[in-house]
Amino acid sequence: MKTKRLGLTLICLGTAGALASGTVWAQSKPLRVGMTLSDIPTTSGQPNGGFEGYRMTGYTLYDALINWKLDDAKGPSTLVPALATEWKVDDKDSTKWIFKLRKGVKFHDGSDFNADAVIWNLDKLFKKEAPQHDPRQRAQVAGRILSLKSWRKVDDYTIEFTTHAPDSTFPYQTTYVFYSSPAQYEKLGRDWNKFSAQPSGTGPFRLEKLVPRERAELVRNSNYWDAKRVAKSARMILLPIPEATTRASALLSGQVDFIEAPPPDFIPRLKSQGFQISSNVYPHIWPYFMSFKEDSPWRDLRVRKAVNLAIDREGLIKLLGGFAAPAAGAVDKSSPWFGKPTFNIKHDPAAAKKLLAEAGYSDSKPLTLKVMVSPSGSGQMLPKPMNEYIQQNLKAVGINLELVTQDWEVLRNCRRAGAGSPVCQGVHGINNSSATVDPFSAFGRIYSSAAIPPKGFNYMHYSDPKVDAMVEKANNTFDEKKRDQLLGELHAYLVDQAVDVWVVHDVGPRAMSSKVRGWVQVKHWFQDLAPVYVAD
Fold first, then answer.
1. Which of 4, 33, 292, 402 has the most CB atoms at less than 10 Å from its CB?
2. CA 392, 393, 396, 401 torsion: positive or negative?
3. Measuring CA to CA, how many Å separate 63 from each of 142, 208, 531?
């Protein structure tokens, strides 16, 4: 099966150019976006809803110290200066990083962004005794910046960070932390609920209206600090539409202009009626993360390999209309971190049955696995038909797969709490899409024993001293090529141990009206909505 990676034809903005930096653009039609989420992602600073939340109310309303380059559909996304203009590790102490902050940046309420604002926000997230501490925001980001130990103000526009140990991946971790206005928080009576309705960040959009579970209306921040990224749309409306066919129908009927994850069976119809379809492979894995706790059958390597070999990935991709790529590990084979694993993940039901028999399972003693799944969610693709397809694959080799369907946020809460926690309701594993955008996201936060909840995202309680040593060695390597080689060795080991069920990589299909302009689908989870608008 040839994977479809359709490129959206990019349309020159020509006549849609700004009259001058910060002035109002000519396009007045709102951009209406149909999300896969069932609710508006939180707006107080650290969005929930996974990386779709980051796309919708994260990088629209806020900025990180370091952002991602999101304007090139062909090359890999790289780090770019944002609220920090430069950063470097200390020459004498590799646990210390110096960040220089951008001068002249204003929050939406007109107050200044500076070192005091950075300290205040970090205290908000990571100091429980701070009066502005918000445990809800902390829950969304704590597992994404595990290396951070302490922080201090050097001067009004310089911050020093200290990590627990030398970590060359630390700059990547800072991309997940957004900065809210301390002045707005004070103005609203130090109430995060009120702040959510009237947030103040530094991003290219401001929030004008919020109706939970119904809509969020964002308007252009004409005074955005980056003149090249001033929003092209005067207004963007976010609409939660978790059911895929309902999203597609909303697009066909003109109720929205842009949707995430159109169902494959709708795509031919959409294309025939002039709608634009775009896709691009990105650092994503659609897996099952399984428990390694004492009572779990997943502790048996034969079981882990059998499940991986039982899945017909090419058949699943056909079900998805070609909009996916088969997974042979956590990262794609084109990644410099893929390495040279010896376990070849493919569809081999005979080998799967043989391994299960060796592990002591049979028709009279079948293996039963219970997995929590969601009906929708960020990066979840089309979870219902996908999980049901895999359920049939596993049944064919003698495995009973029980699917426990819960809301996306319940599933994410289970992942943060870890295997065996009450919120996980006795399941053996979870179907939770995961990002492999950087070394820390791909490996350290998932497979290191230091990331076992509540510290990080190692839901599985997976603990292997060899993996911990390999992660530490990679973190200590500041030469990128050498680090890539070490990560390849780590990934090969994980694949040979069949740690997870790696199914497919998403290519992120989107569908939009023929009047939508400015969309560039990059090879990343995050996408930039600031350049996108609906032509008059």
1. 33
2. negative
3. 17, 18, 16
Instruction: Give me the residues paired with residue 210 across strands.
Output: 216
From 175, 204, 47, 164, select the one nearest 99 (Cα to Cα): 175
Whether pLDDT at 14 is above 70:
no
Averaged pLDDT for residues 214-239: 98
Q: Would you place residue 305 in the very low, low, confident or very high pLDDT band (cuts 50, 70, 90)? A: very high
Q: Residue 141 and residue 515: Cα distance in Å, rounded?
A: 36
3-state class (DSSP) for residue 358:
helix
Tell me the pairing of strands 533-534 and 516-517: antiparallel
Mean pLDDT of all residues in 184-193 = 98
| Cα 324 from Cα 480, distance rounded (Å) | 29
The residues near 254 (Cβ < 8 Å, ≥ 6 apart) are 513
- Mean pLDDT on 213-234: 98
Amino acid code (one letter) for 486: L
Whole-angstrom CA distances from 71 to 20, 156, 278, 518 are: 21, 31, 15, 10
Q: Based on the number of CB atoms within 10 Å of its own CB, is 187 exposed (0-12), middle (13-18) or buried (19 or more)?
A: middle
Q: Return the axis-axis angle of helices 480-496 and 465-475, rounded to nearest 10°.
A: 160
CA dist 192 and 374 (Å) reads 28
Token look-up 């994977």 returns 3
| Max CA pair span of the chain | 74
- Nearest CA to 23 out of 235, 237, 232, 236 is that of 232
User: Could you please report the per-residue DSSP string of 119-175?
Assistant: HHHHHHHH-TTSTT--HHHHHHHGGG-TTEEEEEEEETTEEEEEESS--TTHHHHGG
In terms of Cα–Cα distance, which of 456, 380, 368, 374 is closest to 418?
Answer: 456
Write out pLDDT tens, residues 342-393.
999 999 999 999 999 999 999 899 999 999 999 999 999 999 999 999 999 9
Round to whole Å and give the CA distance between 528 and 56.
9
Token couple for 225: 């600090």
- pTM of this prediction? 0.89
> Using one digit for the tens of pLDDT, what is the confidence trace for 479-533?
999 999 999 999 999 999 999 999 999 999 999 999 999 999 999 999 999 999 9
Contact between 488 and 339 under an 8 Å Cβ cutoff? The reply is yes
List phi, psi (to 5°) of 390: -65, -35
Q: Please choose, from the candidates 457, 18, 487, 526, the residue with its C-alpha nearest in 3D space to the C-alpha of residue 233.
A: 18
Residue 74 and residue 10 in contact, taking contact as beta carbons nearer than 8 Å: no
